[in-house]
Amino acid sequence: MSFAAEVKAELAGLTSARACCQLHELRGAFHSVNGDIDTAGRLARFPLLRNLLARRVVRLTRALGAAESRFQHHRTPHQTLYDVEAQLPTALVASLVALPGVPERACDRKALLRGFFLGCGSINAPSARYHLEFVPPSVAWAEAVQATLAELSVRSGVSTRGAQPLVYVKDGNGIVRTLSLLGASRSVMEFESLRIVREVRGLVNRKLNFETANLGKTVGSAVRQLAAIEQLERGGRLGGLPPALRDVARLRRGNPEAALAELAARLRVSKSAVNHRLRRLELEAAGASPSEPHS
């Protein structure tokens, strides 16, 4: 089961005690799946729902006083989808078809988002990348979902995928807050656990890359320095160099893999002094005239 499916399974099992929350969750689900309604007959249709959402819609409509709720199934090669039809009370019909907007109460905002997420939401496991999205049926509803998130202190963006509007949250903290607002506490803990593993793995990889790069630089420098020392010795010029350069040349030849800090500690000088002397050796081997007098 994907992480998104786990989140939806948790949300579908929640119980909304207040009628206002039940209404706004049902409203979010209704519009997220492009539901339609016969206002004269008070018959609401929720097309092509997955099993979890179909059962959730049936429970919500019955809790809100639906005279009858029934569903039909459609089999596809990969899953079974359901059409839910519910005979609604007259007062509920008007609320269900109300224009897109942000509910006044915080609990109703959370319930509306929960309905939308169950119907048209998705989330990636944090081991891949941070991404939570809603795919509302219209630009007006995309703006309403984004405004609802903003009222709940979650920063989101609006984009399009083809001609379909899209509301997305891409930062880890924003996704954690959104899951908490939806009521998916178990999924929050799993998300945080996976996020910690990802961040630790990233930190280790960055450190390894940094150390590998430094090691590569150290090895490359040592190879050049040893080649310069060999060239000076073959040309009989090494013995004529100042004692400081002969000492660092002897130490480098005996410790080809040592870092500058180790060489500096053995010579009891600074790293910059060791680096300067080794560069002088390379210049001498290349036949260049050092810019400073020998030391």
CATH class of the largest domain: Alpha Beta
- How many domain units? 2
Strand content: 5-15%
The biggest sheet amounts to: 4 strands, antiparallel
| Cα radius of gyration in angstroms | 34 Å
Distance between the terminal alpha carbons, to the nearest Å?
71 Å
* Mean pLDDT across all amino acids: 87
Number of helices: 11
Residues in helix, %: 55-70%
CATH topology of the largest domain: Endonuclease I-creI
Q: Going by CATH, what is the homologous superfamily of the largest domain?
A: Homing endonucleases
Any low-confidence stretches, pLDDT <50, length ≥5? 289-295
- SSE pattern, N- to C-terminal: HHEEHEEHHEEHEEHHHHH
Strand order of the largest sheet: 1-2-4-3
Structural class: alpha+beta
Counting DSSP E segments of at least 2 residues, the number of strands comes to 8
Q: In one word, what is the shape?
A: rod-shaped
Q: Which oligomeric form is depicted?
A: single chain
Name the CATH architecture of the largest domain: Roll
Looking at this protein, list some descriptive labels.
WhiA_LAGLIDADG_dom; 15% strand; alpha+beta; DNA-binding; cell division; single chain; four-stranded antiparallel sheet; Probable cell division protein WhiA
